[in-house]
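Handout, page 2. Input:
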Amino acid sequence: MAPPQDGEQLKKESILVVEDDLFLRNLLVKNLMNEGYDVWVAVDGPSALQTLEEKKPHLIILDLLLPGIDGYEVLSRIKKSTDLSKIPVIVLSNLVSPSDINKTLKLGAADYLTKATYTLEEVAERVKKVLNERYRKVG
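Output:
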């Protein structure tokens, strides 16, 4: 899928935000919508997987510490799925240990951001970067 060329219909890119913290989830959604994205939300692992059965976003922002099914398992299922494996996943978590970061990258995450370190604007920049890389690989 290549980026739209001049004269083509500009279709909004969609992002699934999987975050159980209401305050952070609302901030992320508002910021990403202001950047022009369609944003869907899931509050736990099971609802994320349910949403992904029905919708295919261009990118997923995924917390690791989630009720029901944790983010590691959600990421693992995404990357094992033929339909979903090409969707880039940015992990956004409070976990900062190298083992947590390495585990998610080995599972196939496109990027790993720690919540305490990145501003909403920096998260939006990383989203743009990952989506641009995706278009270069696919296009």
